[in-house]
């Protein structure tokens, strides 16, 4: 099945499609437990991803859907990644936007879809409370883990409950 990069008006989108095709093959041939990602329909620049909450964290046993959008400048610019599953976390706002340095100023062209998802999975268990998007979650993480976990469960929806 041939996948397109949308418009091919310039060589940039073809290069993006080639890079993402390679990353998709890597994901398919070397799957990482707890993460998955794949293009939406035949558009290589729009992906759906999932990460499983890590064991021994308030997110254990939960699955989160994310969207990943790739600009024509990928891999030189980070993808736009959003949580589609509602999540209660110090570094994620209620719109699903993520505060993570590798998605901003610390991005490097050597990073990949898999490395981004692994970093996000790690962030679930190790939030950066010094740079919160959700101040209440950051405060509760440090002071009241029982209440924090209650709010994580209250906000979470299973992937099949989400509108697509």
From TrEMBL:
Residues 15-161 form the UBC core domain. SUPFAM superfamilies: UBC-like. The active site is at residue 99. SMART domains: UBCc. The keyword Transferase applies. PROSITE patterns: UBC_1, UBC_2. Pfam families: UQ_con (PF00179). Keywords: ATP-binding, Nucleotide-binding, Transferase, Ubl conjugation pathway. GO terms for molecular function: ATP binding; transferase activity. The keyword Plastid does not apply. InterPro entries: Ub_conjugating_enzyme, UBC, UBQ-conjugating_AS, UBQ-conjugating_enzyme/RWD. Signal peptide: none annotated. Belongs to the ubiquitin-conjugating enzyme family. This is Ubiquitin-conjugating enzyme E2 2. It comes from Polyplosphaeria fusca.
